[in-house]
Design a protein that fits this description.
- The complex is a heterotetramer, with two copies of chain A (345 residues) and two copies of chain B (365 residues).
- Chain A has 345 residues and is an alpha/beta fold.
- Chain A has helices at 18-44, 57-64, 81-87, 91-95, 109-112, 125-138, 156-168, 200-203, 215-230, 260-267, 271-281, 287-310, 317-321, 329-342; strands at residues 73-75, 144-149, 172-178, 181-182, 185-186, 207-211, 236-241.
- In chain A, helix 1 (18-44) crosses helix 3 (81-87).
- Chain B has 365 residues and is of the alpha/beta class.
- Chain B folds into two domains: 36-218, Rossmann fold; 234-360, Rossmann fold (3-Layer(aba) Sandwich), CATH 3.40.50.
- Chain B has helices at residues 5-8, 40-54, 78-82, 94-106, 125-132, 135-138, 168-173, 185-195, 249-263, 281-291, 306-318, 339-345, 349-360; strands at residues 35-39, 58-62, 87-89, 110-114, 148-153, 178-180, 202-207, 214-218, 234-237, 242-246, 268-272, 275-277, 294-301, 327-331.
- In chain B, helix 2 runs parallel beside helix 8 (185-195), helix 4 (94-106) runs parallel beside helix 5 (125-132) and helix 10 packs across helix 11 (306-318).
- The longest helix of chain B is centred in the first third of the chain and has 15 residues, at 40-54.
- Classes of the chains: A alpha/beta (345), B alpha/beta (365).
- The complex binds thiamine diphosphate (2 copies) and magnesium ion (MG) (2 copies).
Chain lengths: 345, 365, 345, 365
């Protein structure tokens, strides 16, 4: 499915260069490694929980890579580690949310161009629309990209967001990762009609369904969508068909709702292996390259681990100090008695 | 459905009944004075006009806010004057309106959204509580939420269902929100101008039954060096025997009650709480330390209403001097009723007088 | 637009008989008269407010007439007087809500098969889905019909309702009256994509757009939809294109947002006049019939007026007694002190 | 995100940490006794199983409630036993779940929906407040709303954002709702069976940090002629010097505090409020008439929390005998923090002891 018209000047988005292709692979390798490490860290007690994105590396890296962090802004859910990594967000600051250090993460959303991690399913789709409309008001050509899942598509806010965006022609890319599952509920019992992209027509929003395990297809679709948005044509929906290969989170037990056979059938081709084959056959990378990518991914994961282990708790006073820009007498007095009773000062 | 206010208080019958469709007249300022006579609708409209003029990042939007000027005409004429990119209509979806406000704030704007009626804030509660109130915190101060949410509030206009609700207890309980309600045109002008220039989210609850009531507005008040910003509570009438605490439309009613009580020699102090969060505990305690007795009045249902918080703050601060437990005269624990019964529901003069009497006649033991 | 498949057995819904056609006209005449009267009563102070449905008689009577009140259930908004009348609801009890006697009206929703009047825009669409799913669980062939406007279509609940209904194959007819306006906002700035019915495809819900000023088209569409639902095929969307000829409510001033020219152009043909012509040319009714219909409509309106004038306020004790099936000590004590302080007993 | 509970309290470390994935074991009932040892998760599961068996109109649904048995396994095994038309998964939309519940109730069912976590009740608030809580009233009793909404509630499990909220003050303020929270497996079993057979809407707030804690459940209790239905508050420990009022997970903490205080010779009475609406004012007053001092403890933020209502009810009923103003030991007026800081936020033993001390040491003047 592809209802996104070609740009007015007939030019498609630029295809990735060989360097870009290799960078994409390195990013995917780093994400795969960090993701697997995070699951292990949870088992080891380094972090209390984590929502793995195994199998979604192509969808996440491919789309995140299309973002221009000098102007665009991205609104993630709780599972977009790969997007954050592709955008260059500090990974210790990102993962700090999974260490229960600070809801939303410690990274600065303004400089990183990534909104705080969002735990409300579909909670931020409307923020993307508002932010994007702000760009229109400012005469900027920046684009908002918001991530949502197949499960999230059921929320009323998604409908309101798509309708608002289309009515206001807001430059928003709705990037849907349809990974087959919302915890234990499969897409076919979640998304009536079978496709989130197909809903675009009802709003007059151009939409694309892409193979979410093909990083190049994802990158191309996202770049096309950004071109469309930047030219003032309004929103685009991209539905990347992928698969959540792991559990919903480290406290989930997928064995209760799907069999290993079903997993094998549903998951399709592994996005990393596939891209590796493509690079190999195109002669753009060799075994040495992959070994280097793997080694640097491992080193990076190790650094993130060290950073997380070194990360102490935030001072309790931040609970009070960060509520408002202008604090209140009640907060000041609560902060004072907290200090007295808990820190005994 | 929109308010049936116009119908229920026809011009002939009530001084409150200036038609909502009438254009805002020019302020009738005596020459050389800074005081003008305005209805609350006009005062709010003027405040918004000035906010738009002073802050290029301020934007106003909501259902019917643009071309129509809002069902209560609070944004009347603002689209024509400031343009359709500053003042605009949205599709009919309150969660959308608030979610969009959050996004605009993230992009550096100061959104001033309107929810058409109190009861239609409920569809937006998720965005209000989980997003607007927390984004500053979640982002560790990087993404402030300077959003002023206007909500025509409270009852008294014989309106359809869901058009007469009092949500202050809910809002005041939510960490990250500030909440304010004006009681007259002067307060409306200054509190809105103040709220709409704050860097934090403020819920601005407008007492819709007072929209068409006129009053003097001193346009300078907040500018004079000793006046300071309109924070905290305000004594609207000084008295020695008992303190009535109220906000919104109940302030005017309490002032009426005070007049009546004065005939019986009871000297009532009336405190307009104004800010429902943060609550001005000092002002509460200062007043009741003096009067030693208090009644808190609100339209919302009794149980878990803001009156409980006010009463507890007073009790906490005045335990030694208090002569009787603080009384609450409030709406009942029932859904806001239809017009025929609303005078039975909203605290009326009799019920407030009974409350005063209970406090004055309280004897230990 | 019509994506509703023919029934499995190939039979369409039965066409209306001549008697039915005349009854339809009489109903429309009664509704037109009552509606105009209600506006007048508001001006005279008999009722404090009213939301007129002038111009929507065909959409309302045509759809309401299709309801089988021995089994189906209807979920109105605040503007469906014509539906209520076509279903045989007592009009004094219905109009009592506009007299501010009781929110929701005094009629018994259970026996009348009409849910209480709903003032929350899109507030009841989900109730229809729940009720309809209850029919599936009970093995009943009853159908729920829920009314919504073009404005209401923007609410998240409508999306959730359509998705739930389609996932669960619930027997619901979503009857959209697209009357061109949501208070001051025209459909083109409200409904992205231009049509609510067009959204059906995104959910896999068959949908019809009909001329909402043609009572026969509306009746036929509704009957077809009911047949579809009764046979266990899941929900249907009907979008009746009509026009709100009057103000939004008696406190609205349409002159602020639309010109008389725009009204003339938008309103299209008057549904009553049109049906009258059809009946005349088909030889199914004559002037005497129309005169009788008009006279009986006038008599009925007069009776409703008398009923409303005779209607006293409900006793204040009902405020307390109707909150719960099982009351609480707090309510009992509040009721007692209310009685003491307000009734002085 | 779903709860990270399992991760945060690994089996080895805490007695509370029975894996949520373990199948519900058979009740370990000593022969001839009616008392079984169950975790709260098992007690709730058993109550729902019996409700489904006894009432053919009862239906259970929500996100992941069917096949998975709920993220906390409260509905574990119920779909397999009672069928997928009695226990089923819905799409991921809380307003949808509640709106559908209202419609099912109108069709004569007794829906027992689940909202997966407290914070995700907000998207359903509009349906809860404007529809579920009012349909009986609006329809003049013709359309009762026998809906039991289960909400895993409160904090203490180091969960992601929005998974640790306390909404009782909001719910208790809404006319037309009843609200209850169990503090242990015995209460959980009986309160859920009672709530789920009522003709009115009940919000059932489950203290998720207590799900895996075991306790004795007397299966008969509510049936014995003199026990009566589990309405009202319940004294969990008798004491003479001060009353601690709590609900949900805070009851166990207050019992711990009482043990510690006893070492210092302070005899603490612990009152489990159980019903947060209607509140058992009589029980509050009876206890504090005796002890003359009270502290109310809750996890929710202080301002406009249910503690204010409880304090005011006590003050109103015990003004003469009260030796000190009622203290509130509560969460702060801040968004519920991330796991690292939650022990700073939730009232801990120290803070409750400080509260007791303030009350005991209060001197007039
Ligand atoms: C409003 C809301 N409801 C429920 C939840 C609990 N929850 C967290 S993730 C999830 C499933 C989300 O599925 P999907 O949108 O497909 O994203 P995925 O987890 O597959 O990435 C649920 C039900 C939540 N976080 N927010
Ligand atoms: C949730 C909600 N938001 C706002 C309103 C105020 N309001 C009442 S009717 C209306 C317009 C509805 O338009 P539409 O759905 O097209 O129905 P129509 O009035 O045209 O019949 C609005 C904004 C409301 N009643 N409920
Ligand atoms: Mg998914
Ligand atoms: Mg309309």
């Amino acid at each position: 499915m592809d209802t996104l018209p070609l740009p007015d000047d007939g030019t498609a988005a630029a295809p990735p260069t060989p360097d870009e292709l290799r960078e994409l692979y390195s990013l995917m390798a780093a994400v795969r490694r960090l993701d697997a490490s995070a699951v292990a860290w949870q088992r080891q007690g380094v972090i209390p929980g984590y929502a793995p994105e195994l199998g979604q590396e192509a969808a996440q890296v491919g789309s995140g890579y299309a973002v221009d962090t000098s102007r665009d802004f991205v609104f993630p859910t709780y599972r977009e580690m790969g997007v954050a990594r592709a955008m260059g967000v500090d990974m210790v600051e990102y993962m700090s949310t999974h260490k229960a250090t600070w809801h939303g993460g410690l990274y600065d959303p303004k400089t990183s161009r990534l909104a705080p991690i969002q735990a409300v399913v579909a909670g931020s789709v409307l923020h993307a629309v508002g932010w994007a409309h702000g760009q229109t008001l400012d005469g900027s050509d920046a684009v908002a990209m918001t991530y949502l899942g197949d499960g999230a598509s059921s929320q009323g806010d998604v409908h309101e967001a798509m309708n608002f965006a289309a009515v206001m022609k807001a430059p928003v890319v709705f990037f849907v990762q349809n990974n087959g599952w919302a915890i234990s509920v499969p897409t076919e019992r979640q998304v009536a009609g079978g496709s989130v992209a197909a809903r675009g027509a009802g709003y007059g929003i151009p939409a694309l369904q892409v193979d979410g395990n093909d990083v190049l297809a994802v990158l191309e679709a996202t770049r096309r969508a950004f071109v469309h948005c930047r030219s003032g044509n309004g929103p685009v929906i991209i539905e990347a068909m992928t698969y959540r290969r792991g559990p919903h989170s480290t406290s989930d037990d997928p064995g209760r709702y799907r069999s290993l056979d079903e997993e094998r059938d549903g998951a399709g081709e592994d996005p990393l292996r596939r891209f590796r084959q493509q690079l190999l056959s195109a002669g753009l990378a060799d075994e040495a390259f992959f070994a280097r990518a793997e080694a640097s991914a491992a080193a990076e994961a190790e650094m993130v681990r060290e950073g997380l282990e070194a990360l102490g708790p935030r001072p309790g006073s931040e609970m009070f100090d960060l509520v408002f820009q202008e604090t209140t007498p009640a907060l000041q007095s609560q902060s004072a008695s907290w200090r007295e009773e808990s820190e005994h000062v | 459905m929109t308010g049936f206010r116009q119908a229920q208080s026809p011009d002939a019958k009530s001084p409150e009944a200036q038609s909502p469709d009438a254009p805002s007249p020019d302020p009738e300022a005596p020459a050389g004075s800074h005081t003008v006579t305005l209805s609350m609708q006009q005062a709010l409209n003027r405040a918004l006009d000035e906010v738009l003029a002073e802050n290029p990042r301020a934007v106003i939007f909501g259902e019917d806010c643009g071309r129509l000027g809002g069902v209560f005409r609070i944004t009347d004429g603002l689209q024509a004057k400031h343009g359709a990119s500053r003042v605009f209509d949205t599709p009919l979806a309150e969660s959308g309106i608030l979610g969009m406000s959050v996004g605009l704030a993230m992009a550096g704007f100061h959104p001033i959204p309107e929810v058409q009626f109190d009861g239609f804030a409920y569809p937006a509660i998720n965005q209000i509580v989980c997003q607007m109130a927390r984004m500053n915190y979640r982002s560790r101060g990087a993404l402030p939420m300077p959003i002023t949410l206007r909500v025509p509030s409270f009852g008294g206009i014989r309106a359809p269902e869901h058009h007469s609700e009092s949500l202050e207890a809910l809002f005041a309980h939510v960490p990250g929100l500030k909440v304010v309600s004006p009681s007259n045109p002067h307060e409306a002008y200054h509190l809105l101008k103040y709220a709409a220039t704050r860097p934090d989210p403020v819920i601005f609850m407008e007492p819709k039954s007072r929209y068409w009531q006129k009053g003097d507005v001193d346009l300078r008040a907040a500018d004079t060096p000793d006046a300071g910003p309109p924070t905290g509570a305000k004594v609207m009438r000084h008295g020695r025997h008992i303190t009535l605490v109220a906000w919104g439309a109940m302030v005017a009613r309490c002032l009426q009650v005070a007049d009546l009580a004065a005939e019986d020699g009871i000297d009532v102090e009336v405190l307009d709480l104004r800010w429902l969060k943060p609550i001005d505990a000092e002002a509460l305690v200062a007043s009741v330390r003096k009067t030693r007795r208090a009644v808190v009045v609100h339209e919302a249902p009794l149980t878990s209403g803001l009156g409980a918080e006010v009463a507890q703050l007073i009790t906490q601060g005045c335990f030694d001097t208090l002569k009787a437990p603080v009384e609450r005269v409030t709406g009942f624990d029932v859904p806001y009723p239809s017009g025929d019964l609303e005078d039975e529901y909203i605290p009326n003069i009799d019920r407030i007088l009974f409350g005063i009497q209970r406090v004055l006649e309280y004897r230990r033991g």
